[in-house]
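Dear colleague,

Following up on Tuesday's group meeting, I ran the structure prediction for the two-component complex that the binding team flagged. I've pasted the input sequences exactly as they went in, so you can double-check that nothing got truncated or mislabelled along the way. The structure tokens for the whole assembly follow below. Feel free to forward this to whoever is handling the docking comparison.

Inputs:
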Amino acid sequence: MAVGPSTFPADMPAIAGFQIGVAEAGIKKPGRRDLVIMALEAGSRLAGTFTRNAFCAAPVHVAREHLTAGAEGPRYLVINTGNANAGTGEQGMTDARATCQALAEIAGCDAKAVLPFSTGVIGEPLPMDRLTAALPTAFANLGEGDWSAAAHGIMTTDTRPKGSWRTLALSNGESVTLAGASKGSGMICPNMATMLGFVATDADLAIDQPALDAMLRRVVVKSFNSITVDSDTSTNDACMLAVTGQAGRVEGEDLIAFEAALAEVMLELAQAIIRDGEGATKFVTIEVSEARSQEEARAVGFTVAHSPLVKTALYASDANWGRILAAVGRAPLEELDVTGVAITLNGVTIVEQGGRADSYTEAAGSAAMAEEELVIGIRLGRGQQEARIWTSDLSHDYVSINADYRS
Amino acid sequence: MAVGPSTFPADMPAIAGFQIGVAEAGIKKPGRRDLVIMALEAGSRLAGTFTRNAFCAAPVHVAREHLTAGAEGPRYLVINTGNANAGTGEQGMTDARATCQALAEIAGCDAKAVLPFSTGVIGEPLPMDRLTAALPTAFANLGEGDWSAAAHGIMTTDTRPKGSWRTLALSNGESVTLAGASKGSGMICPNMATMLGFVATDADLAIDQPALDAMLRRVVVKSFNSITVDSDTSTNDACMLAVTGQAGRVEGEDLIAFEAALAEVMLELAQAIIRDGEGATKFVTIEVSEARSQEEARAVGFTVAHSPLVKTALYASDANWGRILAAVGRAPLEELDVTGVAITLNGVTIVEQGGRADSYTEAAGSAAMAEEELVIGIRLGRGQQEARIWTSDLSHDYVSINADYRS
């Protein structure tokens, strides 16, 4: 199940200096693309954010280490689906390093120039024989622009590929392009990181690595770190931004426009994960305003987004707004004066001054809840800050997907 | 659905100085007991804990106020099910006070000697005409010992009544009795409070009110505040302990034995809520040990207990222990060294030194998961503190109950 039509663009562009190669390694089951290589031209830069889960997977450890360790800079990302290589102890670390080494030998580069990524079931050993056997095929397939193959090749319980892109005209008349793919459907509550998200740009950014890292962090907070399907932060989340520098120079005011374009691409990729959330039948935006701080606004948004009772009411299209109110009331806020709280549902005011709005009718609430796309507005009445969180509902299919299938 | 046979005792005892009266008020639907009065002999004492939900219901506000305000002390508790009188603004406060006033006029006492409690749907006005019309019947029915009627009369989505009792032989040869009833099935994650729980004792406790309050708080933390069905803290949680003082004097060492007996009664009432959790097919104890603090141990326990992925794996009896590991990894702990973590399932070691145990077999894990009652042991390897949290699984029935029915 998924909300609305697929959002994968038909016209995903190639990024100069960035190539994609895909193969069928049969890691979990045969006959599907499950191994992806992304190649960065020499001289490219790479920024990344990773999961904060303490049990972060072996490839996350190795990718984080290689991100800064390679003398020749980053050259290859290698991504497998079907197995997360998490909870696998020392063997997992050995396997992640061996994957880098195997690709490095094929490509003729240093193993530290390769960053590994894995997604899939936790706690089972990575089938190294099948993975390494398929590396030459994926490497031989490297070519520009096949984002659809990459997006398919990283899917787990996803029902459809996720991609987004933008071009940006620069002040000097040149232009740059950004494109990316993401995956994710369950175990989605990124914490200072993301599910797997890969974005590449040909821009020649006039900023140093710390500034590039900071830009990625700013954008990730408002995109991948603002979504939740089920409150479960994965062991394997990672978001990577590859900058090949093969196109126009981006400096001055253009940097602001570039960050805005990057934010749009990342947000579309993040929202695509929610639209494809496990069992999702609703796409829900929670807009929290008049908070004392960003953190407070986000805490209220996530409390509502994680409430099983709110999520089942959304699934039922039941205007049971008392559950939203109860979730706001249990959010970790100091001294919330409920008489200042107002709640709307697709513009219909349901709560004002802490109680049911005089103007509210069950008919209006039910009509709003029947929509496939919902905006829950929560005004806290105690400050100037705001945040937006995106989530899906809790359906029978979510239970079936996670009870019937070992993901 | 519920786990195991009903645990309601066949032989619930009367408590001297404590009476119960029940009526059918037709608050939500006709033909069921939905109004309960509990009467305390003059001179009784009462201690209580209430929800920390900022949107706490009107009756919670009034009960908290009356708990200390009445010149003649507490005399009556009046409890309705079918309507929570929460999110009802000023009208809700007026209705809660009017309920106390109506009972006070029948009983010939001060309105402040009456404490109101409500449970049921949030956001709909309390049907005062039906409620007050049934008060004389409930009052006329007052008598000692019908705990079964009281336990039935406070149920919402509960599938069975919940009760527990103990007698305690004192050093001086006398004895005292404790008995109580609770309700709760969904919207269960009490926070410094509980779902509705009412316990009465005829003990003559040789402690002052602050010490009585403190005893109740200590016991509640390890019982009602250590359970969760769905992470949603209700707007109406309350736990009351009535002390009539009609039986033996409890002092000195006997006070320690009394607190232990009270803890057993409260824990049985809390566990009965989990066994009857909405859609529950499993009764799960999460034992967290070797933590740096109680708070840390509880945080890990609740993170695992709230994980939808852990809960659906429990429902499926799928030994997908990677989900438990991932939940431990995202718990809010400072600098968790995962190599110190061990996880067991009904005694079967699944994780040691942060990865899959060498001795682990899928067959042993599956056999453990197939049990209806499960103990998940989590050893953090970084301290001496421990905590136990109880929870249920996430089943299709949970979704059906909350999506098909406005609770």
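Chain A touches chain B through 65 residues (CB under 8 Å).

Cheers,
M.
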